[in-house]
Amino acid sequence: MPSETPASPQDTPEVLRRSPQPWLKPAAFAAAGLAVVVVAAGLVTRGLASEDLKTTASAAAVSTVELISPTAETSAEPLTLPASVEANDIAAIHPRVNGYIKAWNVDIGAHVKAGQVLADIDTPDLDQQLAQAKAALTTAAAKQGVAKISADRWSRLLSRNAVSQQETDEKAGGLAEANADVQAAKADVDRLLALEAFKRITAPFDGVVTARTAHVGALVTANAPNDPGLFTVADVHRLRIYVRVPQAYSADLKPGMEASLAVPEYPGRAFLAKLASTSEAVGAQSGALLAELQIDNADQVLKPGDYAQATFRLAPQSAGVLRLPASALMFRQKGMAVGVVDATGHARLRYVTMARDFGTTVEISAGLNAQDRVIDNPPDSLEDGEKVRVAQAAPARHG
Question: 262: which strand partners?
Answer without folding.
Answer: 309
